[in-house]
Amino acid sequence: MDGTKIKSGPHFTAADLGPFSQLDQYQYKHPALPRETDGKLFLNKLLGLTSSEISLNKLPPRTSMPFYHTHRLNEEIYIFLKGEGEFQIDGAEVLSCKQLASKAPPMTSKPLSESSRSLLKFAPCPKSLGPIPT
Q: pTM of the predicted model, to two decimals?
């Protein structure tokens, strides 16, 4: 996490991640996928979160997440920051656009695709219904 500035005190931790346009400097390797994903940053370890999980993501134009997924214990909130795309929750299509917030309860399937010519930027925020395993 080169360039990330962390500031903390007795009751806070703050991270300066730089401009969203530079999110590509962060990569994530999902154990079930053959390659790393550029533009994905989990904040839970960085900020020392104990009961929620937040990531920042960008999805290049005309691409999609490579899998459908569900969470057994997490209620997931997606906050779309920029771009347009298609978001489905259990087969119901929700149009995503800048500043749309959407909630998906545990055990719902959530595929996401970017269908415009612009970059989709979003922050899913799963809230655990119990402690996050470490």
A: 0.68
